[in-house]
């Protein structure tokens, strides 16, 4: 091929494969005919009868072939040289058979070359004209010429039949060539379309590989590099000062133990496995964490021949996850502190209400003592002391002595009434002090058990939470409805659950206080789901309700509908529910129609999806 390409122009050497093939065939055929012509002239010179004919036809033909080769060396396309070649061959064939006057020369097998050659080089339509020229010249004109020019020649009975069949054969050769050419063109067109689609696909794939900052590469099962994108080249350049080379072991710059790990991973990929893992690499600027994905590359027969490696730098994400975890822990601590503050606020609120009762009771006692008629008893005793020597005369003749008995009776009755009133106030005072002690004890117990998981009865904990609000709820005229179903004990963080209950009861109390509803009602329900997998705690009120547009934001941090609210209570309650593998939800028909908060907790320890 290199020898033939020497006769081609530079543009023909750079032509597409089909054009280049036709150009090479044209050169090769022209060289063959030139050599054949030279051999023919050399042979003819040995025969005196053919010398003139050989030189008359051979020299022009040799010049034509040489000129054709010179033209091909300068041509931009093969069309004109191919047309000239077919024309020269047609004229040379006609000239030779007329010069030789051999009766059967027109039926020579070499004549079949022209239809086949012209179809391949020029296409079916242009080749048809050369085929008709061949049929006319070889099948009609030459037989007539032989039968009339040579009186000594007498054609046999099959002479014309043979030339007719020869003409049909010429046409058949053209037809077969045309069919082959059409099929070849279709195959070529399909191949070009396939190649174009492949190039476009490869271009898109390369563009995709190059447009990402992720590292994309492919290796064989031994870890030798096949392809790599620019991200890998940049990484290699920053690590070892150069880009990786195709065929090079991709992991050669890593430690021996890491190389062995990669070989084991590739061995797993060879079995068809898809692998994903994270790995930390040391770099001069610090550690870098990559998320690696390995996928098998299959060959034509379905066998694994290599692996693609996708690596993404997730250092920033890992650092962000670490910071997020720290922030989450901080938020949890803050939420716990806020929850404790919320409970403490409830404690102080209820202690304050109880202290009001204590203050009232002490005021009443002070007033009773100030107004007490015990002083009258002292005066009577002094009077009796003064008349101790003549009590009989004093009671019978002295007017004060005569009234003293009735006075003492009335005084004793009054003192009994005072005693009963004081006992009542002392009882109230004692109950208030006991309530304060109960509130403080409850707070201390929950503070000690914060974060501890224990088995508890939810209804009892709800009653404790209600007890913290009992005075304020009673004073505000809010009725409490308890609907407790039989539920099993649950393993839960007592402090977190109490924190949620305190927040929900506080929100319900505020909602009822702000509403114009006369029959203010707070309902607490405890039940399990139908499959007994979850425990449901519902806190419902018939207070202010929640507008539909606020339902989706009710648990968002900082969102509140209260003028003095901070928007933190429900948010930390939702976080606490999630930490307990539960879920806190809210439902409301609308503003002014109350709301129901539902806390779902798993009984079997499985997390409830958000």
TrEMBL record:
Residues 399-605 form the Histidine kinase domain. It comes from the Bacteria. The chain crosses the membrane at residues 21-46, 52-73, 80-99, 105-123, 130-147, 159-179. It is an enzyme of class 2 (transferase). Keywords: ATP-binding, Kinase, Membrane, Nucleotide-binding, Transferase, Transmembrane, Transmembrane helix, Two-component regulatory system. It catalyses: ATP + protein L-histidine = ADP + protein N-phospho-L-histidine. Its EC number is 2.7.13.3. The keyword tRNA processing does not apply. One of its GO terms (molecular function) is protein histidine kinase activity. One of its GO terms (biological process) is phosphorelay signal transduction system. NCBIfam families: sensory_box. This is histidine kinase. It comes from Hyalangium minutum. The lineage of its organism: Bacteria, Pseudomonadati, Myxococcota, Myxococcia, Myxococcales.
């Amino acid at each position: 091929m290199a020898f033939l390409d020497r006769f081609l122009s530079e543009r023909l050497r750079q032509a597409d494969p089909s054009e280049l093939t036709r150009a090479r065939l044209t050169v090769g055929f022209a060289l063959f005919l030139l050599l054949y012509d030279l051999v023919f002239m050399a042979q003819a010179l040995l025969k005196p009868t053919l010398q003139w004919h050989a030189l008359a036809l051979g020299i022009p033909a040799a010049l034509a072939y040489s000129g054709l080769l010179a033209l091909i060396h300068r041509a931009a396309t093969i069309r004109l040289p191919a047309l000239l070649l077919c024309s020269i061959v047609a004229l040379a064939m006609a000239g030779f058979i007329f010069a030789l006057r051999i009766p059967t020369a027109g039926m020579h097998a070499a004549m079949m070359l022209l239809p086949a050659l012209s179809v391949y080089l020029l296409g079916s339509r242009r080749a048809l004209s050369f085929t008709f020229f061949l049929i006319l010249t070889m099948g009609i004109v030459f037989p007539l010429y032989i039968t009339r020019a040579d009186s000594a020649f007498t054609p046999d009975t099959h002479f014309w039949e043979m030339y007719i069949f020869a003409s049909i054969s010429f046409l058949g050769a053209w037809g077969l060539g045309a069919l082959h050419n059409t099929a070849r063109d279709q195959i070529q067109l399909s191949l070009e379309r396939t190649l174009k689609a492949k190039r476009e696909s490869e271009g898109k794939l390369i563009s995709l590989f190059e447009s990402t900052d992720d590292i994309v590469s492919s290796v064989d099962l031994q870890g030798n590099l096949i392809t790599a994108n620019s991200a890998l080249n940049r990484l290699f350049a920053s690590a070892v000062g150069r880009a990786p080379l195709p065929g090079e072991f991709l992991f050669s710059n890593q430690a021996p133990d890491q190389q062995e790990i990669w070989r084991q991973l590739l061995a797993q990929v060879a079995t068809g496995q898809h692998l994903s893992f994270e790995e930390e690499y040391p770099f001069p600027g610090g550690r870098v964490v990559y998320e690696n994905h390995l996928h098998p590359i299959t060959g034509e027969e379905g066998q694994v021949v290599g692996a693609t490696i996708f690596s993404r730098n997730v250092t920033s994400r890992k650092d962000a996850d670490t910071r997020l975890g720290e922030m989450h822990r901080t938020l949890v601590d803050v939420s716990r502190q806020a929850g404790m503050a919320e409970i403490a606020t409830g404690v102080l609120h209820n202690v304050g209400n109880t202290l009001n009762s204590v203050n009232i009771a002490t005021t009443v006692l002070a007033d009773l003592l100030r107004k007490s008629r015990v002083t009258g008893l002292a005066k009577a005793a002094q009077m009796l002391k003064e008349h101790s020597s003549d009590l009989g005369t004093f009671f019978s003749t002295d007017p004060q002595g005569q009234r003293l008995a009735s006075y003492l009776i009335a005084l004793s009755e009054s003192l009994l009434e005072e005693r009963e009133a004081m006992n009542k106030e002392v009882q109230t005072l004692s109950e208030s002090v006991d309530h304060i002690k109960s509130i403080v004890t409850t707070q201390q117990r929950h503070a000690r058990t914060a974060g501890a998981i224990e088995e508890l009865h939810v209804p009892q904990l709800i009653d404790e939470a209600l007890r913290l609000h009992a005075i304020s709820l009673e004073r505000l005229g809010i009725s409490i409805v308890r609907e407790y179903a039989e539920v099993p004990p649950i393993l839960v963080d007592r402090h977190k659950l109490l924190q949620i209950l305190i927040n929900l009861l506080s929100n319900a109390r505020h909602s009822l206080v702000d509403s114009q509803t006369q029959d203010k009602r707070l309902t607490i329900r405890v039940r399990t789901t139908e499959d007994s997998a979850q425990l449901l705690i519902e806190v419902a009120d018939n207070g202010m309700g929640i507008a539909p547009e606020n339902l989706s934001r009710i648990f968002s941090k900082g969102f509140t509908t209260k003028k003095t609210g901070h928007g933190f209570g429900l948010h930390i309650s939702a976080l606490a529910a999630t930490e307990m593998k539960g879920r806190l939800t809210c439902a409301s028909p609308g503003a002014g129609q109350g709301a129901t908060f539902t806390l779902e907790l798993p009984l079997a320890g499985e997390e409830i999806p958000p």
